[in-house]
């Protein structure tokens, strides 16, 4: 039996449903090319701001037995760096569509970034990050529904390229309802669930693991899978079918990816596991997912996407 991991987001086709999660192995051209040249279906850049940023003081990332904690503080090389790289990549190779992640430190900066991207030759997808938990003094936009609605309303007055949003986890059914009601008003191509569970605290011996914010940081890995699956499925149930879901959070093996797709994900992003294992993670996860699909008789991810079973 031949099994395909190919998928689509909007009008874009990908040979493989796995890619990195923004923030992991995507800071420099070299890292992005590592992913591009692997069997991953695509890559997303480190979330870009208008100006380059150094981010928070080190140590700012730690792997733990159950996942990871980070408070990076948006270190990035600036929008120009990533946009120029993507434009050049598109000139030299059109084999994989790519994602550009960006966020402004203010609404005004977000509009500035999106206007630059709109006027560029970049032909891929744009992921607007509404969920960075680690910049001191800057709350996550997506936890403020009024600001989120206002921002999206303004963005879609001028932005014409394929746009999705990166969301933080929500933890209340009413919040799923309210957020979905907002997102359904806009021609979003995708929502990506979830960013890290913000502001956890991991302790070893008597000390925190990372320097910024007295050790508080975003959690990834095994800690977050049930929350990620719930968010993927909650939005799959509520959003217009034209808004696809990217599933991110707690994917350590093929079974975890299978569960994200069952919950409704069309593509699956790998964060902590990619940080721990490096590029070979894509091959391993692809093989493990294919084996599950063979066992169950599924030839494509469309055969089981969203088919989560409930009790009667
Ligand atoms: C950072 C962390 C995030 O979870 C995010 O969405 C953007 C930036 C960071 O700390 O760099």
UniProtKB/TrEMBL annotation:
Cofactor: FMN
Active site: 132
Top-level EC class: oxidoreductase
Keywords assigned by UniProt, alphabetized: Cytoplasm, Flavoprotein, FMN, Oxidoreductase, Pyrimidine biosynthesis
Binding sites annotated in the UniProt record for FMN: 46-47, 129, 166, 194, 221, 249-250, 271-272
Annotated substrate binding sites: 46, 70-74, 129, 195-196
Limits of the Dihydroorotate dehydrogenase catalytic domain: 5-293
E.C. code: 1.3.-.-
Catalytic activity of the protein: (S)-dihydroorotate + fumarate = orotate + succinate; (S)-dihydroorotate + A = orotate + AH2
Family matches, as InterPro entries: Aldolase_TIM, DHO_dehydrogenase, DHOD_1A, Dihydroorotate_DH_1, Dihydroorotate_DH_1_2, Dihydroorotate_DH_cat, Dihydroorotate_DH_CS
GO molecular function, one term: dihydroorotate dehydrogenase (fumarate) activity
Cofactor: record remark: Binds 1 FMN per subunit.
Pathway field: Pyrimidine metabolism; UMP biosynthesis via de novo pathway
Major location category of this protein: cytoplasm
Record localization: Cytoplasm
Subunit structure: Homodimer.
Biological function: Catalyzes the conversion of dihydroorotate to orotate.
Family: Belongs to the dihydroorotate dehydrogenase family. Type 1 subfamily.
Protein name (Swiss-Prot/TrEMBL): Dihydroorotate dehydrogenase
Species for this entry: Granulicatella seriolae
């Amino acid at each position: 039996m031949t099994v395909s991991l190919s998928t689509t987001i909007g009008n874009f086709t990908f040979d493989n449903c796995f890619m990195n999660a923004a923030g992991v192995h995507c800071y420099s051209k070299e890292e992005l090319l590592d992913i591009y040249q692997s069997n991953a279906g695509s890559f997303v850049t480190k979330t870009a701001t208008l100006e380059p940023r150094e981010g928070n003081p080190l140590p700012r990332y730690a792997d733990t037995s159950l996942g990871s904690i980070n408070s990076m503080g948006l270190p990035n090389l600036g929008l120009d760096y990533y946009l120029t790289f993507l434009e050049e990549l598109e000139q030299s190779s059109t084999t994989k569509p790519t994602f550009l992640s960006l966020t402004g430190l203010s609404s005004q900066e977000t509009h500035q970034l999106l206007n630059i991207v709109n006027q560029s030759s970049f032909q891929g997808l744009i992921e607007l990050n509404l969920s960075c938990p680690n910049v001191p003094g800057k709350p996550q936009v997506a936890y403020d529904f009024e600001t989120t609605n206002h921002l999206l309303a303004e963005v879609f007055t001028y932005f014409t390229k394929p746009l999705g949003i990166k969301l933080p986890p929500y933890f209340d059914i009413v919040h799923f309802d309210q957020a979905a009601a907002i997102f359904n008003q806009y021609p979003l191509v995708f929502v990506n669930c979830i960013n890290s569970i913000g502001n956890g605290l991991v302790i070893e011996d008597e000390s925190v693991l990372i320097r910024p914010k007295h050790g508080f940081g975003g959690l990834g890995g095994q800690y977050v899978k049930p929350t990620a699956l719930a968010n993927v499925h909650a939005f799959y149930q509520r959003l217009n079918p034209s808004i696809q879901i990217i599933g991110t959070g707690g994917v350590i093996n093929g079974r975890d990816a299978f569960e994200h797709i069952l919950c409704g994900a069309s593509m699956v992003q790998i964060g902590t596991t990619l940080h721990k294992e490096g590029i070979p993670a894509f091959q391993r996860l692809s093989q493990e997912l294919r084996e599950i699909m063979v066992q169950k008789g599924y030839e494509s991810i469309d055969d089981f996407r969203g088919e989560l079973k409930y009790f009667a």
